[in-house]
Automatic annotation (TrEMBL), chain A:
CDD domains: USP-like (cd00293). Belongs to the universal stress protein A family. It comes from Salinicoccus hispanicus. InterPro entries: Rossmann-like_a/b/a_fold (IPR014729), Universal_stress_UspA (IPR006015), UspA (IPR006016). Signal peptide: none annotated. This is Universal stress protein. Residues 1-137 form the UspA domain.
UniProtKB/TrEMBL annotation, chain B:
Residues 386-483 form the STAS domain. It is a multi-pass membrane protein. Keywords: Membrane, Transmembrane, Transmembrane helix. It comes from the Bacteria. The keyword Acetylation does not apply. This is STAS domain-containing protein. InterPro entries: Membrane-Transporter-like, S04_transporter_CS, SLC26A/SulP_dom, STAS_dom, STAS_dom_sf. GO terms for cellular component: membrane. Its main location: membrane. It is found in: Membrane. It comes from Salinicoccus hispanicus.
Length: 137, 483
């Protein structure tokens, strides 16, 4: 049984499908960590588009609301983790931190076209992570 | 104190020095291109970048942020340089720094929050458009070779980083294409055609302008614009770096540091500058967290210029133009199109008007000020709309007030009250309203006086705490009418 489940999510449809997959092997002792990577270029647009009244943290949480709603509805315990960095390296780094038993991610994220041409985050994570990797189609 | 210094300078020095070197390499083409936009010798921008980077690394509020000569400032000063010459630019830079220093001492960082999002979006988008249009003369109608060099530069800067990130792609484009140019020759203009490179360290000078009121009259408008634009871009960049590094920085210290750095730049023959979003992101992406990275960027830049100055004049202009097109595309906020559809109409209008005014006046500062005023007017219009709902049941009339009651909104509020009511029990319900000032209190007073004159019994309900306080202090109405 996996206890610490890492779900790399960017708010895309694929990452939502990966979240649904978690339900199939989730059990009461487990906790899911939803990892969202904030690219350095995202900082610029997030700060520019962020409103003053609400924190960036909350706006970023909203991007994951579909997944957190799904977890809430299914009584899945979760926490969220926001990390700054390049998506590929950062997912691998967190996955290999020793805190997690398995990592899930969608085949393709928000930036579909680019990844089709140039090799995706999921490919890199599958190659470099030291824990089991589940890539959800 | 010593601990903070150690942390801000000596954490992970190797990564920070390497990041600084990467930034130095990325800064050189931009500093030269921005000098050419301003209409001065490349050295004016290169000295500015060296001095500002080194000085801000010590004095700035935001570790790991990169400040140097920037497009925003260069675009502002073009008319000053073309009409009066570079010495006036240096004098204007001194005054710009002085203004920023004063604003920093007055803790102006807090005022940034009064610049609405729509104006900031207009600012970066107008800046992007202006950087792009400034390159048109270097790209179009010169020669076929010029187009080829621009196109190849763009291919390199967009494709190479996908596979190879250790060296900044603009530098790869410059080295590779300049080598090809030196080897094969081509019908293109070079940096040397537009200005000279001196292989020396900057030295202390006092700008050679007449120190008269006339000079002040010429430079002051430019200095004010430069100071505003410099602070807006610097504090925006600081927020972005804060977010990207999960830390917080002193905006007032940054404002003072920008001021002092520009004063020093002016005394050493450099044009004004400010923080750079693109370069700061390159720095942070390379792992930089400390002041040492910014310091390294400045010193390596001037070292390279002293060593390689002779080669820099050979760099073909279209390569720099291509890099500037990349800078423009990177500066533009592409999410703005979505924003224009989704945001409230008035916000979208403010953004478009900000961009339009900048493009008409060629002055980012005027655009920002106009944008702030316009959005303040929209805000005042929106907030000065108090809604009053009237309901009547068996001789008892109830007015429910919705909104902010203050000097700008009392007229719309009064217009919705029927002052011809007679001999009724009238209840004024303020559950969803807030009374802000004596104009609001006066309006309510006169409303009550007039209604009572016609034999009505008037009572006030559900004032919130602040509104009750101001009514108690300023109003003439009887306390028993307050329920």
């Amino acid at each position: 049984m996996y206890k610490a489940i890492l779900l790399a999510a960017d708010g895309s449809e694929n990452s939502y499908r990966a979240a649904q997959e978690v339900k199939k092997f989730y059990h009461e002792d487990a906790i899911v960590t939803i990892l969202n990577i904030i690219g350095y270029a995202d900082s610029k647009s997030d700060v520019l588009h962020g409103s003053n009244s609400r924190s960036l943290e909350r706006e970023r949480l909203e991007k994951l609301s579909k997944i957190t709603d799904f977890f809430n509805d299914n009584n899945i315990r979760y926490e969220t983790l926001f990390e700054h960095g390049e998506p590929k390296e950062t997912v691998v780094k967190v996955a290999n931190s020793g805190d997690y038993d398995v990592v899930l991610l969608g085949t393709r994220g928000l930036n579909g076209l680019q990844e089709m041409v140039l090799g995706s985050v999921s490919h890199k994570v599958a190659k470099r992570a030291n824990i089991p990797v589940m890539i959800v189609k | 104190m010593i601990d903070i210094l150690k942390k801000e300078w000596l954490t992970d020095p190797k990564t920070n020095i390497l990041a600084g070197i990467v930034v130095a390499l990325a800064l050189i083409p931009e500093a030269i291109a921005f000098s050419i936009i301003a209409g001065v010798d490349p050295m004016v921008g290169l000295y500015a970048s060296f001095i500002i980077a080194v000085s801000i690394s010590i004095l700035g509020g935001r570790p790991a942020m990169i400040s140097a000569a920037t497009g925003a400032i260069a675009l502002l000063v073009t008319p000053l340089v073309s009409e009066h010459g570079v010495e006036y630019l240096l004098a204007a830079t001194l005054l710009m720094g002085l203004i920023q220093l004063v604003l920093g001492i007055l803790k102006i960082g807090k005022l940034m929050k009064f610049i609405p999002k729509s104006v900031m979006l207009g600012f970066v988008n107008a800046l992007a458009v202006m950087i792009f249009t400034s390159q048109i003369e270097h790209i179009f109608g010169i020669s076929i070779s010029t187009y080829v060099y621009v196109a190849v530069t763009l291919l390199i800067v967009y494709l190479v980083p996908r596979f190879f990130k250790a060296i900044p792609a603009p530098l790869i484009a410059i080295v590779l294409l300049t080598a090809i140019y030196l080897f094969m020759g081509a019908e293109v203009r070079t940096v040397g055609d537009l200005g000279a490179i001196e292989r020396s360290l900057p030295s202390f000078i006092i700008p050679d302008v007449p120190y008269t009121l006339e000079t002040l009259r010429i430079i002051l408008p430019f200095s004010i614009s430069m100071a505003i634009v410099g602070l807006v871009e610097s504090l925006l960049t600081a927020k972005i770096v804060d977010d990207a590094t999960d830390s917080y920085s002193s905006k007032n210290r940054e404002s003072r540091g920008q001021g002092i750095s520009n004063i020093i730049a002016g005394f050493f023959g450099g044009m004004g500058g400010c923080a750079m979003i693109g370069q700061s992101i390159i720095n942070v992406r390379s792992g930089a967290t400390t002041r040492l990275s910014t310091f390294t960027a400045g010193t390596v830049l001037i070292f390279l210029i002293i060593v390689l100055g002779d080669l820099v004049v050979q760099v073909p202009m279209p390569i720099l133009a291509g890099i500037m097109v990349m800078v423009a595309i990177g500066t533009f906020d592409w999410g703005s199109f979505k924003y224009m559809v989704r945001a409230p109409r008035t916000d979208a209008v403010v953004m478009v008007v900000t961009v339009a005014i900048v493009l008409m006046t060629h002055n980012l500062a005027i655009g920002v000020i106009a944008g702030v005023i316009l959005s303040a007017l929209f805000f005042a219009t929106k907030i000065s709309n108090v809604e009053v709902d009237r309901t009547e049941t068996e001789g008892a009339v109830s007015y429910r007030f919705n909104g902010q009651v203050f000097f700008a909104s009392v007229d719309t509020m009064m217009n919705q009250i029927d002052l011809d009511e007679e001999n009724k029990a009238i209840e004024l319900d303020f559950t969803n309203a807030h009374i802000w000032d004596d104009s609001g209190v006066d309006a309510i007073d006169s409303m009550i006086t007039k209604l009572k004159r016609k034999g009505n019994r008037v009572s006030i309900r559900n004032l919130n705490k602040d509104s009750r306080k101001i009514i108690n202090e300023l109003s003439m109405i009887n306390k028993e009418e307050l329920i």
